[in-house]
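Input sequence (40 aa), recorded before submission:
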Amino acid sequence: MPTIALVDDDRNILTSVSIALEAEGFASKPIRMAQRRSKD
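Predicted structure, token format:
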């Protein structure tokens, strides 16, 4: 089973995409990244 790494800062998006991929037969590895803000 192919594994896809999912990287996003939104937990809801990671969950939704992960569920959809697993329903299609893929394994997923969600990785939540904190969003960095620039100091302008």
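Checked by second reader. The longest helix spans residues 11-23.
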